[in-house]
Design brief:
The complex is a heterodimer of chains A (65) and B (500).
Chain A (H helix, E strand, L loop, with lengths): L1 E4 L2 E4 L6 H8 L1 H8 L3 E5 L16 E6 L1
Parallel strand pairs in A: 1-4
Antiparallel strand pairs in A: 1-2, 3-4
Helix pairs in contact in A: 1-2
Chain B lengths: L1 H11 L1 H11 L14 E8 L9 H14 L3 E5 L8 H4 L6 H9 L4 E3 L9 H10 L4 E2 L3 E2 L12 E5 L5 E8 L19 E2 L2 H5 L11 E7 L2 H10 L5 E3 L11 E3 L2 E4 L7 E10 L2 E11 L8 H11 L7 E4 L4 E2 L1 H15 L4 E5 L7 E2 L2 E3 H7 L5 E7 L1 H15 L4 E4 L1 E7 L5 E8 L11 E6 H6 L9 E6 H11 L12 E5 L5 E2 L1
Parallel strand pairs in B: 1-2, 2-3, 3-4, 7-9, 9-10, 10-12, 17-24, 22-26
Antiparallel strand pairs in B: 1-13, 5-8, 6-7, 11-12, 13-14, 15-19, 16-18, 17-21, 20-24, 20-25, 22-23, 26-27
Helix pairs in contact in B: 3-9, 10-14
Classes of the chains: A alpha+beta (65), B alpha/beta (500).
Chain lengths: 65, 500
């Protein structure tokens, strides 16, 4: 399936979670989210957690807290 | 003629006439116009608790208090209550603590999430039988003779004034596999249809209710689609994507909400109805830690579950302790490969903590060894793609990090630790068949963080390495045989001697 993080398209395995998407996008950014320095939101600016299950077409943004 | 006369006599009965007028007035079938005063209904909701039981004494307190103050309060659950905490997932029977707290919390209805299937159908059946609330799901078909009963697609809850709230249950289905994200063996014999498509078969519920809600475990993206395509709905209470909807969304006049995950928040939807019509609907979130009160009896139960002595029981006894990272890496990858019937298992050193497994293996030893909750992903890979992962690994770390099962590999490198080549072989010493693809089981961290080409994006097996490892240790005999095989080698170019 294909998801979008910070407007970059990422192909990822079926059943992936937000954390998998972040790792594929940027391990550094993923570590920042894991450390609580950044957060992940959807297109409506609603937070999603790292264990959230992704669907084809999911749109996410990594933001400063 | 006689029949007509008889029919006329029946209709002419004054009581019958009144009954017919009553029926045709819509007072029974059409919910509108039953009440003049404004009625307030509150629906609390949670989703994706994933075996986190600790907050349920507070949740139950809130629900009990609100139900005492207003009879038009309901508590609904949008699925995925299981999987994510060994206290619940490794209980005997699995999931029992969560079943208990859901029953004690005033739950009115629950929709199946994909992880409700994780413990298998026998335990799902037990859950469905022992739940003191209905469990709904519209997009599952259970054949005759199956283990679980066919869930009802929807329920209609009623307020004391007779206002009807229809809740339609929907579970997530992967577009690629056509099944929910759980291990395929867990849903054997069951068939599923796409939630958004199936929901459209229930448009009639609009006419049978005053408030029409999808209790959806489809995920936010699908909830948006559902709202766009099914304006009959008033509200979608969602789950699956773990979205904390601090900014609720309304699409096509359908309010979409979701309450994050792990029972850290409880969602609240307030609905106002006048003359059978919704005059207001809004959603908000309550942080569970801000709830000022707990039900002591539930708290005591939760404490007892958390201190369950059975969780410290011996799962299996090995011939002796397994010492050293390499032996443990071989054991873990053997488990991964054999339990899931794969050709090759791969696991990384960083995914493992503790260099020892004692002779008497307890649950805590497994979760100390494998603390990260990594899922297993299955990918069909060519030999060249398999080589690519070992190349990336060596180039990233300047040494090998990957344990394997089903194959051996030798990385050839320069004195400066620059990668030259990798030679991957089957356990019998033969090279991989270039014309074949291999089923590779690998943890989800590696698939996500490692940069290697693979045409098949892969598929989660919806089980963790820890769960797989427990199953392997309990199910297989002689698990320590062959563990000391040398499966990984590095070789300095131009030298014959090989080093690990």
């Amino acid at each position: 399936m294909v998801i979008t993080i910070n407007e970059k398209e990422i192909e990822i395995f079926d059943g992936a979670r937000v954390e998998n998407g972040l790792l594929k996008y940027s391990e550094e950014e993923c570590r920042a989210v894991q450390a609580g320095e950044k957060k992940v939101v959807d297109k409506n600016d609603n937070p999603v957690d790292l264990e959230g299950e992704l669907s084809d077409g999911s749109v996410l943004f990594i933001k400063e807290l | 003629m006689n029949r007509k006369k008889s029919k006329f006599r029946t209709i002419a009965n004054p009581a019958a006439v009144l009954l017919i007028l009553f029926l045709f007035s819509g007072a029974v079938n059409c919910p509108a116009n039953r009440q003049d005063a404004e009625t307030e209904i509150t629906i609390f909701h949670i989703n994706d608790a994933h075996s986190r039981i600790d907050n349920f004494a507070r949740i139950a307190y809130l629900i009990k208090k609100e139900k005492q103050e207003n009879p038009n309060v309901f508590f609904v659950n949008a699925g995925d209550n299981f999987s994510g905490n060994p206290i619940v997932d490794q209980y005997e029977p699995k999931g029992e603590p969560m079943r208990a707290v859901l029953n004690l919390s005033g739950t009115d209805v629950l929709t199946l999430g994909n992880h409700e299937f994780d413990y298998g159908q026998e335990l799902l059946k037990k859950f469905m039988q022992e739940a003191n609330f209905p469990i709904i799901c519209a997009n599952i078909a259970v054949p005759a003779g199956a283990i679980i009963p066919q869930p009802k697609p929807y329920v209609i809850l009623k307020t004391k004034e007779g206002i009807r709230i229809a809740l339609l249950g929907l579970v997530q289905i992967s577009r690629r596999t056509g099944i929910p994200s759980t291990h395929p063996a867990k849903i054997k014999g069951l068939t599923f249809s796409y939630g958004v498509d199936t929901a459209k078969n229930y448009r009639f519920l609009k006419d049978k209710s005053d408030v029409f809600i999808a209790l959806s475990h489809l995920g936010y993206m699908s909830d948006e689609k559902l709202a766009r395509e099914m304006g009959e709905l008033d509200i979608i209470i969602g789950g699956h994507s773990h979205t904390l909807m601090v900014n609720p969304v309304t699409i096509n006049d359908v309010l979409i909400t979701q309450a994050g995950s792990y029972a850290r928040y409880i969602g609240r939807v307030d609905i106002t109805i006048k003359d059978g019509k919704i005059t207001g609907k809004k959603s908000s979130l309550i942080k569970v830690e801000d709830i000022k009160g707990e039900i002591p009896g539930i708290k005591e139960k939760i404490t007892a579950f958390n201190n369950n002595p059975r969780l410290n029981r011996v799962l299996t006894t090995l011939p002796g302790p397994v010492k050293g990272e390499d032996l443990l890496g071989n054991l873990i990858t053997d488990a991964l490969r054999k339990i899931h019937h794969l050709d090759i298992g791969i696991h990384n050193r960083g995914g493992t903590r503790s260099g020892r497994l004692p002779k008497d293996v307890r649950l805590k030893d497994i979760y100390t060894l494998l603390p990260f909750g990594n899922d297993i992903v299955s990918i069909e890979m060519t030999p060249a793609e398999i080589e690519g992962i070992f190349r990336y690994d060596f180039e990233r770390f300047n040494h090998v990090e990957l344990y394997v099962s089903g194959i051996t590999y030798t990385v050839k490198h320069t004195a400066q630790k620059r990668f030259i080549s990798v030679d991957v072989r089957l356990m019998n010493g033969k090279p991989l068949d270039k014309n074949k693809t291999y089923k590779v089981g690998i943890n989800d961290y590696l698939v996500s963080a490692y940069k290697f080409k693979h045409r098949d994006a892969g598929k989660s097996l919806d089980t963790t390495i820890a769960e797989t490892f427990i199953q392997y240790l309990q199910q297989e005999k002689n698990v320590t045989e062959g563990l000391d095989e040398e499966r990984i080698r590095t070789a300095l170019a131009g030298q014959k001697n090989k080093e690990k």
